[in-house]
């Protein structure tokens, strides 16, 4: 009898153990530079963590920035995660905690049930819950409810503490108004800024508009609180701020139960503390300046000479003379070429001996900018991509992971502070003991924040440049040879122009590139 052997061909891939396809989800609630660096750190941590497991296949890190955990409909990163789970790309999802996933019990349970029906597990690291091994939803339901309540309890504890400080006049704003700084728990004057405040009130009383005041401050290069430009709205808000009379008005805004901030128009109590700090102007001057604002508003409805007037041309305020440092002013040529637009050096106009640069033609500047962009378009592989790679190199994985670790420790520190506030409000511990423990936590918080700031500081600027450079590369890659100048084009990519001579300028782009071009 002859034996028959049947050969069965197996797909080679079936002989290899299937890896678990793993994704991660992370979220930060604000879009500040610090929070975005923290988000990068979380993403770096998860990518390294997933790739280091030989049984896992890295799918990606899904994230939302500047989004509250209470508002699911706006969380596009989370929605994309659910969508990719539905089409079978994911087996396991990692996330730090239930509160990062969702603060709403209903949303959290709905999403988990949906994912479990799709065969997708969710691992909540902080609570050590793996939905794949759960026999019941009870524990998840309890913890999810706690996550939802956490937003309210944290808010209530903070409100209790803040309200008490409002009432006894000891509340201290984290960012005092221009003219003041915090020192030893009190608001103290910054002398040079206080002089600017006095001048603003005096100018207003003497009939100058907020636009005129802002323009003069900018002309004199008077620094603002954040190093930017003075605007009529900034001057207006200073004149209307009772802080400068030495009084403090607390709870001008409030947060509702859905975590939305509103102006307080009578919904909540306000607290005024007279002689809270040293005044910069008298109450009489304050009232006179505000009456002048109201008079102008009644006459005109709004300020006619607003900030957009001085910046209606894309080059306005952005061209500087290399020789004397002055800005160039837009002018129409009368002779010998009537109607020709020129940019003339203010330094030369004021004193012909101070600077040799007379003027450059507007049309030549525009042509030079388009020429420079076209050169970049053809040389992007040699210039732009290497620059992008270089900038991205600063965002080292090691630093990002270290930032993530510090952020975790800061979150635990904050939780402990909030717990203390709750214990005091419930009368469980004495205020004196709470003060001692809170001071210890604050010392640790200061140390951790300093470490995090040092790591983040070098990365924030690079992040902005990276974003601008990516935008420029994307535009040049998708566009044909540029033939016409547009204001939008310069506003999008141009930062400023240095007029080297009447035949050469240097364009500084928002991505940090500085390129010379002939006129």
Care to describe what's here?
- With 519 residues, the protein is of the alpha/beta class.
- The protein has three domains: 16-147, Rossmann fold; 169-309, Putative Large Serine Recombinase, Chain B, Domain 2 (Hect, E3 ligase catalytic domain fold, Alpha-Beta Complex), CATH 3.90.1750.20; 312-519, no CATH class.
- Helices cover 48% and strands 16% of the residues.
- It has 16 helices and 18 strands.
- Helix 1 packs across helix 14 (397-425), helix 13 runs antiparallel to helix 15 (431-478) and helix 14 packs antiparallel against helix 15 (431-478).
- The longest helix is centred in the C-terminal third of the chain and has 48 residues, at 431-478.
- This is Recombinase family protein.
- GO terms for molecular function: DNA binding; DNA strand exchange activity.
- Residues 177-299 form the Recombinase domain.
Q: Which outline best applies?
A: flat
Class from helix and strand fractions: alpha/beta
The largest beta-sheet arranges its strands as 2-1-3-4-5
Oligomer type: single chain
Please state the average pLDDT score: 77
Gap between N and C termini: 97 Å
Count of the domains:
3
Radius of gyration (Å):
30 Å
Low-confidence regions: 12-16, 301-311
Largest sheet descriptor: 5 strands, mixed
Helix content: 40-55%
């Amino acid at each position: 009898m002859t034996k028959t052997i049947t050969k069965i061909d197996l797909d080679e891939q079936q002989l290899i153990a299937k890896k678990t396809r793993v994704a991660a989800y992370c979220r930060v609630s604000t879009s500040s530079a610090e929070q975005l660096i923290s988000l990068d750190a979380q993403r770096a941590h998860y990518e390294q963590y997933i790739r280091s497991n030989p049984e896992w296949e890295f799918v990606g890190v899904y994230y939302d920035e500047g989004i509250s955990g209470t508002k699911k409909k706006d969380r596009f990163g989370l929605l994309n995660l659910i969508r990719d789970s539905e089409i079978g790309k994911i087996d396991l999802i990692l996330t730090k905690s239930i509160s990062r996933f969702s603060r709403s019990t209903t949303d959290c349970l709905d999403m988990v049930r949906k994912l479990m029906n799709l065969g997708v597990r969710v691992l909540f690291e902080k609570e050590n819950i793996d939905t794949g091994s759960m026999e019941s939803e009870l524990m998840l339901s309890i913890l999810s409810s706690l996550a939802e309540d956490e937003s309210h309890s944290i808010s209530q504890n903070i409100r209790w503490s803040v309200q008490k400080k409002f009432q006894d006049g000891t509340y201290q704003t984290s960012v005092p108004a221009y003219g003041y700084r915090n020192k030893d728990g009190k608001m103290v004057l910054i002398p040079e800024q206080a002089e600017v405040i006095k001048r603003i009130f005096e100018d207003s009383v003497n009939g100058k508009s907020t636009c005129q005041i802002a323009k003069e401050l900018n002309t004199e290069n008077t620094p603002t609180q954040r190093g930017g430009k003075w605007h009529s709205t900034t001057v207006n808000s200073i004149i209307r701020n009772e802080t400068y009379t030495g009084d403090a008005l607390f709870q001008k805004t409030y947060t509702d139960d859905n975590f939305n901030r509103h102006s307080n128009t009578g919904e909540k109590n306000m607290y005024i503390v007279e002689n809270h700090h040293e005044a910069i102007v008298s109450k009489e001057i304050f009232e006179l300046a505000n009456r002048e604002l109201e008079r102008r508003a009644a006459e005109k409805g709004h300020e006619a000479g607003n900030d957009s007037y001085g910046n209606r041309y894309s080059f306005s305020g952005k061209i500087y003379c290399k020789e004397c440092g002055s800005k160039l002013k837009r002018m129409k040529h009368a002779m010998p070429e009537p109607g020709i637009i020129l940019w003339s050096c203010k330094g030369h106009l004021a004193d012909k001996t101070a600077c040799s640069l007379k003027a450059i033609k507007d049309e030549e500047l525009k042509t030079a900018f388009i020429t420079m962009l076209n050169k970049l378009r053809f040389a992007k592989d040699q210039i732009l991509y290497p620059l992008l790679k270089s900038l991205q190199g600063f965002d080292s994985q090691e630093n990002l992971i270290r930032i993530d670790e510090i952020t975790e420790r800061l979150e635990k520190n904050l939780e402990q502070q909030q717990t203390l506030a709750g214990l005091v409000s419930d009368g469980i511990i004495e205020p004196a003991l709470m003060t001692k423990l809170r001071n210890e936590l604050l010392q640790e918080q200061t140390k951790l924040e300093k470490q995090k700031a040092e790591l983040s500081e070098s990365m924030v600027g690079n992040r902005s440049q990276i974003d601008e450079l990516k935008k420029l590369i994307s535009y040049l890659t998708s566009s044909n040879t540029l033939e016409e100048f547009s204001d939008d084009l310069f506003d999008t990519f141009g930062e400023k122009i240095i007029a080297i001579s009447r035949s050469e300028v240097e364009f500084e782009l928002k991505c940090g590139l500085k390129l010379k071009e002939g006129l």
